[in-house]
Specification:
The protein has 70 helices and six strands. The protein is mainly α. A hairpin with a 2-residue loop joins strand 1 and strand 2. The longest helix is centred in the middle third of the chain and has 38 residues. The chain is globular. The chain starts with a strand and ends in a 6-residue tail after the last helix.
Length: 1490
């Protein structure tokens, strides 16, 4: 080698040059790195050990880089560490295979690494300036680091680890190469730490040096990359830190040392990871428990010590975290989250036990963990009481975080919340409205857990009493934040749970005291309202300010009214949800004696408030004036009255009888209530409650035959008056009484009337009232709500549209004879205008002018048909149905005539615009919006006609014979009809033509002929797709449907001669249009699939071939292989893009149709193409559920194949599966196709099917790609076998069972590789296969019972679940026993256990038990082995589900075989398990004694 007068001809000269004191060795000349690179790359320099020399020099330069940089004061970029040439050369030397004459790399590299400090090189690499060389450096370190890491001391690794922490503070610059280097350092440190003897020094140095960087590295997740390797590195860094902080030597130190290090500057970094640190601390305590706790010998004592240490950690966490001050609000939120996380671990690990923490000590410092929990509770309650409802930031956190903490405390120990329960409930009741939307979700869980505790302890009555006491408590929030008196009850979401708890957990002896408490609570709340109101009145008189009050008085009145309303709501829920025996008359603990007291109290409040309102308030004008000047006084009347009436109604509805004599209203009292309901100044909530009360009175009097007709009619009249006056089409109601307004009062009344009192209305209302009610229903619009309004609504609301649709879908409504009769008569009345319209053939072609009055009536009649679309057709009487159909036809023709006239006017208008430069307004032109509305009405009418069935049932309606031509002549102004209109029009045309074909009348024959002639005249399929109008599309679709129904429902000779001639002309027209175009498409080679693929064109050609064959014309003459051409192109372009489902289905149908038109010798080629097409496009590869669409074609055509074609199709499938070169997805689709073919096989193919199934079963069992390949392939194979065994058990032969058992055994065998998720269908398919054998082919099963027992044993072993926190080797031992489709991370559920139990039970119900008894023992042994496995568990739910099957096995085994098992097959643990199982079996076994 020679360059610039530098000659290297031997290793000695190379060493002399590289060790020269100057760089470059001679000036001018190449540098040392250039000399080394040239020497390495020079092929003529063949010294065997030149790699050793170069590697030693490069490593020396890299190791001394820092020292040289410091001595010569050079920049880092000029350093060898940052020079890419050094690392590239070193990478080449280490990774290039050495010559045979050279020493192995490990031989000369180990002594070299012993002399160097590789960790110093790594330290330099972890600086930001070395980012350019990380790639080759990683490659070099992959060789160097495994050899050197064991020689590096722990202190040096600690320095490298600190460099890793600093590097990972900024995760954005951590790429894959840096991740590998950092992971290698962390792994080496953890290994060295595990082998170290004394870790105390490491613990101290970690706290003082590494802790800040470590915390920032594990907490800084905002810039963390989403790659799994980066996340694994962060987890490894966390594990390295916790291994140091919580080693055995560190745990022996005081916790003060650790927490004193957490200064205030580290708190923000510590907060996110604090719960995780606590969990790691607990794991370390459990791991080293025997070494840490040596003072106690009992297991219980060890657990107590562990709990003490854990709770001491909790106390210090609380003190350190919450003792930090001067933190921003966002960090304050993180404080809450971290403390909640710590408390959740306390609850999960069951660390807090009062007796274990306190013991006999009285000093508070002995159980500081409890103090921490108590202080946290007080802090959370204080935060809720001082919450700022108008803060723009952290609104949700102000409510959610304290709620989560209180919820966690309830789970830890109920007494933490039980002592302050009333205070907490008071806060929830008076929560400010801006925060109510945040409070529902978190506090619902909190209240549910509190209620669960009281339910389990049978103290629900105590909880209810506390809840009632919280209603009267003064709110902690200022008046401006408290909810208004008319607001929704804040705990309404909790009342259903309270009601359920009362019904299920309240004891009979608790009923009477609770009723007394409830009555006393209502009485006290009422007295508080009266006192506050009277005090306000007295103060107003003294100041001579009527109706006025200062702030404190207004607050007192508002609080008392709100408390009374809430108390009544709770009282109604409580008294109406006692256990059923509490409402039994004459019972020992019956509620009956208290009902009178409840009624007296409630009605006394109602009459007192109403008397003050109507006797002292003056007339309506004065009441309005008083309500405007003193809204709080007005609220006093209606809120109290409404709450009382609602409270009485809830109890009355539950007991179904009046609440004492005061509940039996007199005539004057009814008049007073009606006056309140009809009063314009009455609030909607009061009106609704009055109407509900009066309607209940009507129902009760009707049931007991004591109703007064005049009074009943007055109540119905008042209800309908309010309903008519207050019904708004755009109103919505959430279902809450507090949300009632004057706009939605009518909606609420309609809902109450239709949901609860519709039967009473039908039975007692007069015909006039029923007519008003039905007329009101028929005027409701069914237009959906505006999208904006629907998007802005936060919850589901009741609407008029929803109420009406629910009513019409309710069969009970249509069984009400009076309402149904009035409804039908009202419908006929509203559509009477349509009976005057005449269906004339000339009217279709001539424009029609309609005046405004008739147009309004026509609109109303069309809207009625929109409602009728939701009415069940069976409830129309025949005369009404006939009349409505006639009127619907007339309306359809009339609307079409109007639209054609509009189209003609628009055409004339456009012509005038061409002659004039100025456009004048035209008054009679229909707007686009109105045109859209008329099209919508036309759609509803046609949907009604479709639902009513064929028109042939219309007697004497001769003009209906022209209706088909009318349907085929849509106006041109409808360029793009809605999908519903287009579809229903096609359905009507099809129904019309079929009904006329089935008719024997001459007019019907002429009508069909005229329709076919019209179809021919329209020249279907002659226009390019871009020029097709709705008329062309309608005609073409009608032709396709006509051909399909004709060929399936009729024979050609059964039709009349006139229709036969018309059909032949239609065929000739189609042939003249389709044949030339199709022949051209087949002859030329297209540039793309889009030139050929059109579902309409494909379907047209397919129907043409079908019609040709149906007409008896020779199909083989002039045959055009259009389908074969399309399929071939699609197969060739499989990977170019996805195709529409309709196209794939159409091509498949065309292939089947062409088989009937081809000679027999060509069928095989066509079937080969068909199978290839399905393999390419079947299954779930393409969108829009192509598999379902294509499967329907296969199912339809498979049964029509000949035996020869079917046998060839199966042979193609067998060859395709046995051959090579197919993708996995193609094989899966072929298996699916085979399953469809066997399920829909033509008759006479049993022998073919048996041979085919035998071949496939052998193939499945022999090749691993079927039982050990992809999860989908495995499921397809099993589904194929399961469906075949279930659908065709007679075709199964004894030779098949061997392959099936072999396949099942292999699928259930253990594997070292597993899928990421469990394939549960695999298990169920296997159970289905075995179940089909047991149920349907027991004659074959009895000869293979050992195989059955083996598979059942394998299934039983799958019921195991791996124990948590196993080591790597132990986990590997367990996972290798599970099949590949069942990863241990997702074990089987109780559904699979239940399925296996059903299978085992089926064995005992058939003739199998006698012969299977000898093999059932081993299945029982499998269960015992699974249960006794020290590395696995079978949880209680799984055992409970398996019990029926295990008991069936016990019955088959018998006592003799059981004893043999106990002696020979089980160890001591297994014997205990089997004894316990047999004991449970004996308990449930029927012994014939009753």
């Amino acid at each position: 080698m020679e360059q610039d007068n530098i000659v290297v001809h031997s290793v000695h000269s190379l060493v002399r040059l590289l060790k020269s004191s100057t760089d470059p060795p001679s000036t001018p000349g190449p540098s040392k790195i250039e000399i080394a690179s040239l020497a390495w790359s020079d092929p003529s320099f063949r010294a065997a050990n030149k790699g050793e020399v170069i590697a030693e020099w490069v490593l020396t330069q890299l190791g001394e880089a820092k020292k040289a940089r410091r001595e010569k004061d050079i920049k880092f970029t000029s350093d060898p560490i940052a020079d890419l040439r050094y690392w590239t050369l070193l990478c080449g030397v280490l990774t290039t295979p050495a010559p045979t004459t050279a020493r192995p790399v490990k031989t000369w590299l180990l002594p070299l690494l012993n002399r160097l400090q590789l960790h110093s090189i790594v330290l330099e690499l972890l600086t930001p300036q070395s980012s350019r060389v990380l790639g080759p450096a990683r490659t070099a370190l992959a060789v160097l680091w495994p050899l050197a890491e064991k020689k590096i001391n722990l202190d040096a690794l600690g320095e490298c680890l600190n460099a890793v922490f600093k590097t990972c503070e900024d995760w954005e610059r951590v790429d894959d190469d840096l991740v590998w280097i950092c992971s290698a350092v962390v792994c080496a440190y953890r290994n060295a730490l595990g082998n170290a003897g004394n870790k105390k020094k490491l613990y101290t140095s970690f706290l003082t040096t590494h802790l800040p960087s470590w915390l920032y590295a594990i907490c800084n997740t905002s810039s963390l990359a989403s790659s799994s390797s980066t996340k694994q590195l962060q987890n490894a860094i966390y594990a390295a830190g916790t291994d140091t902080l919580f080693s055995l030597d560190a745990l022996k130190q005081s916790l003060d040392t650790l927490f004193d290090t957490f200064s205030s500057t580290l708190i923000p970094s510590l907060l996110p990871v604090l719960p995780k640190l606590f969990s790691s601390f607990l794991n370390a305590i459990h791991k080293h428990r025997s070494a840490l706790i040596v003072s106690t010998t009992s297991v219980i004592g060890g657990r107590e010590e562990t709990r003490k240490k854990a709770m001491e950690f909790v106390r210090r966490c609380w003190t350190r975290v919450w003792g930090s001050t001067s933190l921003p609000e966002g960090v304050n939120v993180e404080k809450w989250k971290s403390i909640i996380g710590v408390f959740e671990i306390v609850e999960k690990e069951r660390l807090f036990v009062v007796n274990s923490i306190r013991g006999t000590q009285t000093d508070a410092t002995k159980y500081g963990g409890e103090l921490a929990l108590t202080e946290a509770r007080d802090k959370a309650i204080e935060m809720l009481e001082t919450v700022n409802a108008f803060s723009e930031h952290y609104q949700a956190e102000q409510v959610v975080l304290p709620a989560q903490l209180l919820d966690t405390l309830v789970q830890i120990e109920y007494d933490f919340i039980g002592s302050v329960l009333e205070r907490v409930l008071s806060i929830l009741i008076h929560i400010p409205l801006p925060l109510l939307r945040f409070a529902i979700a978190p506090f619902s869980g909190l209240l549910t857990r509190i209620l669960e505790y009281h339910t389990k302890t049978r103290t629900v009555h105590t909880y209810v009493s506390t809840l009632l006491g919280a209603m009267a408590a003064k709110p902690a929030f200022p008046l401006s934040l408290s909810p208004p008196v008319t607001s929704t009850f804040p705990l309404a979401y909790h009342l259903p749970a309270v009601a359920h708890a009362l019904r299920t957990s309240l004891t009979p002896t608790q009923v009477t005291p609770l009723v007394t408490d409830v009555i006393q609570a209502i009485r006290s709340a009422w007295m508080a309202v009266k006192d506050a109101h009277e005090e306000g009145e007295r103060s107003a008189k003294k100041r001579k300010l009527r109706g006025g009050a200062d702030k404190s008085e207004r607050e007192a009145i508002s609080d008392s009214i709100r408390a009374f309303s809430y108390t009544c709501r709770i009282a109604g829920t409580v008294l109406s949800n006692f256990p059923a025996n509490a409402y039994t008359e004459g019972g020992e603990y019956s509620l009956e004696p208290s009902c009178s007291d409840v009624g007296d109290l409630g009605w006394s409040i109602v009459w007192e408030t109403l008397t003050e309102r109507y006797e002292k308030g003056g007339d309506t004008k004065k009441r309005k004036h008083a309500a405007q000047n003193s809204p709080l006084s007005a609220s006093y009347t209606y809120v109290v009255t409404s709450a009382s009436l609602r409270f009485l109604y809830d109890i009355r509805a539950r007991v179904s009888r009046p609440l004492g004599n005061c509940d039996r209203l007199g005539e004057a009292q009814v008049q007073t209530l009606l006056k309140a309901a009809l009063d314009e100044t009455s609030e909607p909530e009061l009106v609704l409650e009055v109407i509900r009360t009066l309607l209940w009175r009507v129902w009760y009097m009707h049931n007991f035959k004591s109703q007064k007709q005049l009074e009943t009619e007055l109540i119905f009249t008042a209800t309908l008056d309010i309903l008519t006056a207050r019904l708004s089409s755009r109103s919505k109601w959430s279902g809450v009484s507090a949300a009632l307004t004057r706009d939605n009062l009518g909606l609420a009344l309609l809902y109450v009337l239709t949901d609860r009192w519709i039967e009473i209305l039908d039975a007692l209302a007069s015909p006039e009232s029923l007519g008003r009610f039905i007329s009101l229903l028929l005027t409701i619009s069914l237009d959906p709500p505006d999208e904006e309004t629907q998007e802005n609504s936060d919850e589901a609301h009741l609407t008029l549209r929803g109420i009406l649709l629910d009513l019409f879908r309710n069969a009970q409504f249509w069984e009400l004879h009076n309402i149904r009769a009035v409804f039908l008569s009202s419908v006929l009345s509203l559509t009477a205008l349509l009976s005057s319209y005449k269906f004339l053939a000339t009217a279709v072609e001539s424009p029609l002018t309609v005046d405004a009055a008739d147009q309004a009536q026509l609109t109303l009649a069309c809207n009625v048909y929109r409602l009728l679309d939701h009415v069940p057709s069976v409830y129309f009487t025949r005369p009404v149905r006939v009349e409505l159909v006639k009127r619907a036809i007339a309306a359809d023709v009339h609307i079409f005539t109007m639209l054609k006239g509009e189209n003609r006017k628009r055409g004339e208008r456009k012509g005038k615009d061409l002659d004039r430069s100025h456009t004048e307004p035209v008054d009679d032109e229909v707007s686009e919006e109105e045109l859209k509305n008329w099209i919508s009405r036309l759609t509803f009418i046609r949907v009604f006609l479709q639902r009513m069935g064929p028109f042939s049932n219309t007697p004497g309606h001769v003009t209906s014979f022209d209706f088909g031509n009318h349907l085929l002549s849509p106006p041109s102004c409808i360029t793009s009809p809605p999908k519903v209109l287009a579809s229903v029009t096609l359905d009507l045309i099809q129904s019309y033509v079929l009904s006329q074909l089935r008719s024997q009348e001459p007019e019907a024959v002429a009508s069909v002929s005229s329709i076919i002639t019209k179809l021919i005249a329209a020249q279907p399929f002659s226009q390019p797709r871009s020029q097709e109008t709705w008329t062309h599309i309608l005609v073409q679709s009608s032709v396709l449907r006509l051909v399909e129904r004709l060929t399936s429902d009729f024979t050609f000779v059964s039709l009349s001669d006139e229709v036969q001639r018309a059909l032949k002309k239609l065929f000739e027209a189609l042939e003249s249009t389709l044949s030339p175009d199709t022949a051209k498409l087949v002859e030329r080679v297209p540039t793309g699939l889009n030139q050929l693929l059109s579902s309409e064109r494909i379907n047209a050609w397919s129907r043409f071939l079908l019609l040709k064959r149906w007409l008896g014309i020779d199909s083989q003459a002039a045959f055009i292989p259009f389908g074969s051409k399309l399929a071939t192109l699609m197969i060739r372009n499989e990977n170019s893009g996805r195709l529409d489902a309709e196209i794939c289905s159409s091509v498949l149908g065309l292939l089947f149709e062409e088989i009937s038109c081809m000679p027999d010798v060509s069928h095989h080629v066509q079937l080969d193409v068909l199978v290839a097409l399905y393999a390419a496009y079947g299954g779930d590869w393409a969108p829009n559920k192509v598999e379902q669409v294509m499967d329907n074609r296969i199912i339809e055509a498979s049964k029509k194949l000949s035996i020869g074609d079917f046998a060839h199709l199966l042979s193609v499938l067998a060859e395709g599966m046995a051959g090579g070169g197919l993708q996995v997805a193609h094989r899966e689709r072929l298996i699916h196709l085979g399953k469809l073919m066997l399920h829909n096989a033509p008759p006479g193919t049993l022998n073919v099917i048996q041979n085919f199934v035998t071949g496939w079963l052998n193939l499945f069992a022999d090749r691993e790609q079927f039982y050990g390949g992809s999860s989908n392939m495995r499921m397809e194979c099993l589904e194929f076998i399961a469906k075949h065994c279930s659908d065709r058990p007679a075709s199964i032969r004894s030779v098949d069972l061997g392959s099936i058992w072999t396949l099942l055994h292999k699928i259930l065998s253990g594997s070292s590789e597993h899928d990421t998720t469990t394939a549960f269908p695999v298990f169920h398919h296997i159970v289905t296969i075995i179940g089909a054998f047991v149920r349907l082919r027991r004659d074959l099963v009895v000869h293979t019972l050992p195989h059955l027992g083996l598979v059942l044993r394998q299934l039983m072993m799958l019921m195991r679940k791996i124990r948590p926190q196993l080591g790597a080797k132990q986990s590997k031992l367990v996972t290798d026993t599970f099949p590949s489709w069942l990863p241990t991370s997702q074990p089987l559920s109780t559904d699979e256990a239940r399925a296996l139990a059903r299978l085992l039970t089926s064995l005992a119900t058939k003739t199998v038990p006698r012969t299977h008894a000898a093999h059932a023992s081993y299945v029982l042994v499998a269960y015992v082995d699974a249960f006794n496995d020290p590395l696995c568990i079978i949880n209680a739910e799984m055992r409970r589900e398996l019990e029926p099957g295990l008991f069936a096995l016990c019955e088959m085994v018998g006592e003799h075989s059981r004893d043999a098992l106990m002696v020979s097959a089980l160890d001591s643990g297994g014997k205990t398990i089997l004894k316990s199982l047999w004991k449970d079996y004996e308990k449930q076994r029927y012994v014939g004694k009753g």
